[in-house]
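S1.2 Input.
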Amino acid sequence: MIRHYLLLLTWTLYAAGLAEVGVLAEDPVRIGILGIDNFGSVAYTEFLNRPHAEGVFAGIRVVAAYPIGSSDYPDSSKLTEQWKKQLTDLYQNPVDPKDAVPSIEMVNSVDELLAMCDGVMIFSMDGRLHLEQAAQVLKAGKRLFIGRPLASSMEDAVAILKLASETKTPCWSSSQHRYSTGFSGMKNHPEVGRVIGCDVYGGWAINAPESDQFTRPLHSIETLYTIMGPGVVSVVCTATPTVESITALWNDGRVGTYRGIKEGSVKYSATVFGDQGVSTSGIYGHGVPVNGVVPTNDKYVGYEGLASEIATFFKGGPAPVSPAETLEIFALMRAAEISKAENGAVVRLQNFAKEVD
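S1.3 Output.
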C-alpha cells in the first residue's frame, strides 16, 4: 500500500511539473508488463516512456511490471534479471532534471499489476504461459497486447481470442516484421504494382525450445501476410535438413512461399511479383527498394513501427490485426505441419475464426 502511494505521488508530482511546461495535459494511459524475459519488454518501453514524448507516444506510459519467468524455458531466469535491470534503469538519473521519468515499479502478482494499469503487454518468452496469463488480464477487462507469439499452439490461440470476444476486451498480437517499412511498403510499390505473388525467406531455428517449435516461421509468415494479405486456402510443406519450404495457395489463385533457412546465411527478406514488375523487398528495419536498390543506410526503424501501433491501440484505437487473420496464420502453420507429416500432401486450412465469433 505504501509503495502504491509513493508511486501515485511520484506520478502526481511528475504530471504537475510537466503540465507547467505544457507537455502533459492529462494523466497518461498506464501500461503494465506481464513477464519480462522477452527483449520486447525493454524495446517497446523505450518508446512508450520517452521523456517529453510527442505524437503517437505522448500520453502513454509503462508504470509497472510483474517479472515472472518460466521454470523450463532456456535462460528465462537470466533474461528476466537482465531486462529487469534495464527496465528499472530506463531514463533514470538524467543530466537534466526536466528529462526525469518516473521509475517502473516491479510488483509481485498479476492482481497487483492489474490494479495499477489500464492495459497490459505480455512479454513472457514461453508461449505456453500466455493462455493462463491472458485469461487473467481479459477477465479484468484490460486491453491486451501479446508479444510474439500469441500462443505456442493452435488450441491456445483459439482459446485466447475466444475469451477476448466473450469478455469484449480488445486483444491482439503481431511480429514487429509486419510493421517494417521494407515489407509493408511493398503492397503498393510503384515498381511492383498489384502483388500477385511473393517468396519470403527467413530463419528456422532447428534447436528451438519446445514452446517455440510450432511458431518458428511466424516472423516470415507475418511478412508474407503483410505483403499478400489474408485468404490462404491450402498449403504444401516440404522439409529437408537444410530448408523448411511452405507453399500457400490464396483463394484468388495467387501463390506465396516461405523458405525457412536451416543451414547457411540467414536473412529476412522477400521477392515480390506484381503486375508491373518484380522486386526484392526491403530488409527488416529498413525501407523499400528504389530502382531495385535495397536501402541499408537509411534510418533503422526496428521496433518503432510496432511500438506506434501498440501506443495507438492502448489509447483507444482498434486492434490493427484482426482475430480472423491471426487465426488464419496459425491455421496455416498447423496445415504445414500436417502436410509435412503426410509427405507433402496438399492440406486445406481449417476455419478457426468461426470458433471465436
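S1.4 Remarks. The chain is about 35% helix and 20% strand.
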